[in-house]
Task: inverse folding
């Protein structure tokens, strides 16, 4: 978009704010910038990507030694789940530790953290380190929805011209785990 178009949009926003008797803090406004960081995301002309500082914090995160530390890590990483293909499948081994901790009434992961969790922890970190920028939708172009289902999770990616717009994933639970493959695949389409 052109700078002139940007100025017209700003005039419209300011007019609407004035009509609604709303004010904005000038010191918090960033106008005429090619890139803006907001709520842990970076927005520019290419699309939306995670804030590099937040991703760096995730990459530096040490291996959790308690269930509380693990929940904090998965919670922070989960904020960017819409950037990660098959997020639910990747974190499944990490979530699997929670029932064991509750059963033993222990917060410690000592003796519970196995190679499977280590692999999932590193896989999640690597996935977050190489996240794609999510493109903005172009409503003049066709969309492609790609879905998938595994034994334990479903997933989808919405794309346009080969560029991802959003990822979705969900862990299956209870009776869903016993569904035949075609029902899991249909559920992935339904949820997407």
Result:
């Amino acid at each position: 978009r052109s700078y002139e178009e940007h100025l017209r949009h700003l005039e419209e926003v300011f007019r609407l704010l004035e009509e609604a008797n709303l004010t904005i803090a000038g010191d918090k406004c960033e106008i005429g910038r090619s890139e803006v960081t907001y709520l842990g995301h970076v927005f520019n002309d290419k699309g939306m990507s995670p804030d590099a500082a937040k991703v760096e914090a995730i990459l530096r995160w040490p291996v959790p030694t308690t269930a509380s530390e693990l929940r904090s890590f998965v919670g922070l990483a989960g904020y960017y789940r819409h950037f990660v293909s098959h997020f639910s499948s990747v974190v499944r081994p990490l979530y699997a530790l929670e029932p064991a901790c509750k059963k033993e009434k222990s917060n410690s992961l000592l003796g519970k953290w196995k190679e499977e969790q280590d692999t999932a922890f590193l896989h999640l970190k690597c996935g977050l380190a190489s996240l794609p920028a999510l493109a903005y939708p172009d409503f003049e172009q066709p969309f492609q929805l790609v879905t998938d289902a595994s034994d334990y999770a479903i997933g989808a990616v919405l794309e346009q011209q080969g560029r991802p717009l959003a990822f979705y994933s969900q862990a299956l639970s209870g009776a869903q785990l016993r569904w035949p493959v075609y029902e899991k695949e249909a559920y992935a389409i339904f949820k997407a």
Summary: The chain has three domains: 1-32, 40-129, 144-191. The longest strand covers residues 163-171. The beta strands are 35-38, 41-44, 47-50, 144-149, 153-160, 163-171.
